Amino acid sequence: MTSDDPRQCAPATTRNRDPILAVLRSILPPSGVVLEVASGTGEHVVHFARALPMLKWQPSDPSREARRSIDGWIAAEGTDNVYPPLDIDAACDRWAVDHAAAVVCINMIHISPWAATEGLMRGASRILDPGAALYLYGPFRRAAKPIEPSNAAFDKDLRSRDPRWGLRDLDEVAACAGSHGFNLDGVVEMPANNLSVIFRRS
Ligand SMILES: C[S@@+](CC[C@H](N)C(=O)[O-])C[C@H]1O[C@@H](n2cnc3c(N)ncnc32)[C@H](O)[C@@H]1O
């Protein structure tokens, strides 16, 4: 990459993209447009798009630098089933997408105010058909399980950076999803004390 290359790299994506892909393969529909909320660098979306070419992928992120990076990864990889990134803030009531076959959101809800989680549920509920999947990935707190030391340290660091951030309680996230018409369909333990959480629009 040159110094004017807009592509950003998040080292964790190369570690978690294949375990996430394995879950996505089992829950996504055979065709349609998958909206990714909070695409970040764009490394995930080009990886998923290459592996699942029958789907169209719509990345998004409210950060201009992130969208430039996503554009850079799309151009560099030559993936033709990824649309240009959209400026979507999950917390806003207007999203630049009015329908999707599934919504994917990786590592956002603990690094944003709770309003972003509520907005994600509200927006996904607006654009998904009954039965469609809302997929979340990241670290969570769980009532029945002591928080892992690595996640406790991460939570402390997040809260010191912004008191509105921090690991979310899975039951609270599920309750929020339920209030927007989603049922919890599955929880998959992932490497490094993360979870895949799958909701279905009722
Ligand atoms: C830790 S990064 C995760 C990026 C990518 N999904 C990944 O796992 O590498 C968090 C991302 O959430 C985005 N974000 C923060 N608040 C958001 C919001 N309200 N709506 C949508 N995206 C948001 C940020 O711009 C950032 O790209």
- SS class: alpha/beta
- Total strand count, please? 8
Order of helices and strands: HEHEHEHEEHEHEE
Q: Spans with pLDDT under 50 lasting ≥5 residues?
A: none
| Share of helical residues | 25-40%
Sheet with most strands: 6 strands, mixed
Strand content: 15-25%
Tally of helical segments: 6
Strand numbers in spatial order across the main sheet: 2-1-3-4-8-7
Terminal CA distance reads: 45 Å
Overall pLDDT level = 97
The small molecules bound here are:
S-adenosylmethionine
Shape category: globular
Topology:
Elements: H1 11-27, E1 32-37, H2 43-51, E2 55-58, H3 64-77, E3 100-106, H4 114-127, E4 128-138, E5 140-141, H5 149-161, E6 168-169, H6 170-179, E7 182-190, E8 194-201
Helix pairs in contact: 1-2
The structure holds S-adenosylmethionine.
Residues 10, 13, 37-41, 44, 61-63, 66, 89-91, 106-108, 111-112, 116 line the site of S-adenosylmethionine.
Compact overview of the structure:
The chain has 202 residues and is α/β, with parallel strands linked by helices. It has helices spanning 11-27, 43-51, 64-77, 114-127, 149-161, 170-179, and strands at residues 32-37, 55-58, 100-106, 128-138, 140-141, 168-169, 182-190, 194-201. It is globular, with a radius of gyration of 16 Å.
